[in-house]
Amino acid sequence: MRRSTAAAVGTLTGAALILGVRLSVQPPAAPAEAAPAAQELTEEPAPAETSAGAKKPATGATSPSSKKKESAKPTEEAGGLKAGTYKGKAVQNPYGTVQVTIKVSGGKISSADATYPKTGFSATINPDAVTKLNKETLTAQSAKVDTVSGATFTSQSYVTSLQAALDAAGA
User: Fold this and answer.
1) What angle do CA 105, 110, 113 make, to 5 degrees?
2) pLDDT tens sequence across 81-106
3) DSSP string covering 41-90, please?
4) Could you tell me which of 8, 84, 17 has the C-alpha nearest to residue 44?
5) Cα(129)–Cα(48) distance, integer angstroms
6) Alpha-carbon distance 66 to 72, whole Å?
7) How confident is the model at residue 168, as a pLDDT?
8) In terms of pLDDT, which residue wins out, 164 or 75?
9) Separation CA 14–CA 107 (nearest Å)
10) Which of 99, 65, 93, 71 is nearest to 168 (CA)?
11) pTM for this predicted structure
12) Packed helices 152-169 and 122-140: angle between N→C axes, nearest 10 degrees
């Protein structure tokens, strides 16, 4: 009789603990406000040269408040991308947020950089992964880059943010 009572109490206690744990686990909260798809940071107008070879200030130079003017838009280059620096949307994954910034000149991506999680286990994986992704971006000149093994979430977030930056650049 004692064994059956102990077994019943143990079973009920275990079931109560399991049920309690399941009820207390909640999914991660969604971000309160979605970031814009992409935003242009700066523009790089081509400097005009005089007949003496000295550079004169380019017309149509803009301040952040005059971005909406027609003359302030960057010119489209041969590669289809507008010169400037573009920041993709911040993409959240289970380990943190990744955001890619690209610099375009001559119609091509001249540099790519990203912000990424730098704490915990991510600090050992992300620096190498993002370096590889940056190099692949410059080689591919598009968002069609291979994911880095062992950094799947970072790679997927990188590609999503990169595509948003390319969309802003006019790809």
Assistant:
1) 125
2) 888 899 999 999 888 899 999 999 88
3) EE--PPPEE-TTS-EEPPTT---GGGTTSGGGSPPB-TTSPBSEEEEEPP
4) 84
5) 40
6) 7
7) 87
8) 164
9) 64
10) 99
11) 0.56
12) 40
How many whole angstroms separate alpha carbon 128 and alpha carbon 23?
39
According to DSSP, residue 14 is labeled H
Separation CA 78–CA 144 (nearest Å): 20
Cβ neighbors of 66 (< 8 A, separation 6 or more) are 72
Whole-angstrom distance, CA of residue 51 vs CA of residue 46:
16
In the chain, the N- to C-terminal Cα span, in Å, equals: 77
Mean pLDDT of the 93-122 span = 89
25 confidence band (pLDDT: 50, 70, 90): low
Give the residue, 102 or 45, on which the prediction is more confident.
102
* Cβ-based neighbour number of residue 82 at 10 Å: 20
- Helix, coil or strand: residue 108: strand
> Could you report the per-residue pLDDT of 131-153, keeping only the tens digit for each?
999 999 999 888 898 889 888 99
What whole-number distance in Å separates Cα of residue 89 and Cα of residue 75? 23
